[in-house]
Amino acid sequence: MEQYAQRLPNGDRSDKVRWALTEVRFLRSFEGLEPLHFEPGKENDLFTIPFRLVNDKLVVRAKINGNETADLVVDTGAEQMVLSDDTASEVGVRAITNALSAGVGDVGLRGLEAGRIDSLEVGPLKVANLPTLIKNPPLTGLPSRRVPDSFSPISLGLSTIIDYGQHHLIMGRQLPEEPADIELPMRVYRLAVVRGIVNQTHPKSFVIDTGGEVISISLSTAAQLGMQPVRHIPLRVFGTSGWDEDAYLLPGVDLEFDRIHYENFAVVVLNLHRPSALLGFHIGGIVGHRFLSDYRATIDLNRSVLRLKEL
């Protein structure tokens, strides 16, 4: 990456160079350390962790750098662990450099701090040397005073079973193959996505987001449908990048995910332009708690499938 930065033409020595050298500085902070280092002898274990449902989000207790923390949200819609600025200060995680992030909200693309967590303990799971985003500078006008902290098993390379019936999270590098009522082919590039079909003729990629609450589609997907609702129903939606002023409710949509059908369904329409640009592919929509919670849901990274077993 240093050679790449050096070879950029003189006229292009601004953002590209700065972001490349920022990434170099972050990678060098791991010198002599093994990133995502699991407790020796436990690398291939299955880790079973109880969770609570709070506002339709999976919440677990954790220790960061040996400090008892507030709760962590299990968020498969995030690329890596995310800490608020307050939590990072409390547990001794310092900023090393900056990183580019994007999410739902009017801020869109935003520069955040990036740091390294020395140790994370979630139940029996113990991992060292994790990259994390620190939400600094913080957003203003929040609906609550405390920004939730979160982690994604996918960012740790762990497949995950979410048992909504037993309120158990089961994670491991290799999961046992279990019978399922529905299997959806899954693709993982930074985030895990499955294919859904909107109004019978529009196949789209939907992000599997345990941190999300509803089923949503993007503004561009909604535009392709050409539907003219009787009245515009604006929504007040707060995402990871602030308030989404474009959000609205679109009734009368049909969705298909293999044998799962939602007919004449009301979906939330979100502005996903910036997250799509950062990821490099079009996000057609998001499936969250409303979609997953009726199942024992398995996100199997090795077999590239989302398995759903009815409760």
Topology, pairings included?
Blueprint: H1 2-7, H2 15-28, E1 37-38, E2 47-50, E3 52-54, E4 57-60, E5 63-64, E6 67-68, E7 72-74, E8 81-84, H3 85-91, E9 95-102, E10 109-122, E11 125-135, E12 149-151, E13 159-163, E14 168-172, E15 182-189, E16 191-198, E17 202-208, E18 215-218, H4 219-225, E19 233-234, E20 237-239, E21 242-244, E22 248-257, E23 260-270, H5 273-279, E24 285-287, H6 289-292, E25 295-300, E26 305-310
Describe this structure in words.
The protein is mainly beta and 311 residues long. It folds into 2 domains: 33-172, Acid Proteases (Cathepsin D, subunit A, domain 1), CATH 2.40.70.10; 182-310, Acid Proteases (Cathepsin D, subunit A, domain 1), CATH 2.40.70. 14% of the residues lie in helices and 45% in strands. Strands 1, 5, 6, 8, 9, 10 and 11 form a 7-stranded mixed beta sheet that branches. Strands 16-17-24-18-23-22 form a 6-stranded mixed beta barrel. A hairpin with a 4-residue loop joins strand 13 and strand 14. It is globular, with a radius of gyration of 20 Å.
